[in-house]
Design a protein that fits this description.
Layout (H helix, E strand, L loop, with lengths): L1 E9 L7 H13 L3 E4 L4 E5 L2 H17 L5 E8 L10 H4 L3
Antiparallel strand pairs: 1-3, 1-4, 2-3
Length: about 100
């Protein structure tokens, strides 16, 4: 599995971004992606890069289609091949 961190931010759309976060979350749900949102980003679990890139593209485009004229998308990817990791594995290892 691939664990990634996604942050999509419209620029110049005011100080509250909750409307856009909801759009991203709805896009992830439509694509049946496992995710967990925190105060700064959304952590996503996907089986491969193709799925990840496809859903990130969908989410980016959904924010643009909602009226945002400028969108910054940040994606951090942990593609580990030496052992199986899923959403929450990293947090469990430090408890």
């Amino acid at each position: 599995m691939i664990i990634s961190q996604l942050s999509i931010s419209p620029v110049g759309e005011g100080t509250s971004l909750s409307k856009y976060v909801k759009i991203v979350i709805d896009t992830l749900k439509k694509n049946n992606i496992k995710f967990k949102t925190n105060d700064m980003a959304t952590i996503i679990e996907t089986k491969d890069l193709e799925t990840l890139f496809s859903v990130v593209k969908d989410a980016h485009n959904a924010v643009q289609k909602s009226g945002a004229k400028r969108v910054i998308t940040e994606l951090k990817i942990d593609d580990r091949k030496d052992k199986e990791v899923v959403l929450g594995t990293k947090v469990k290892s430090i408890q």
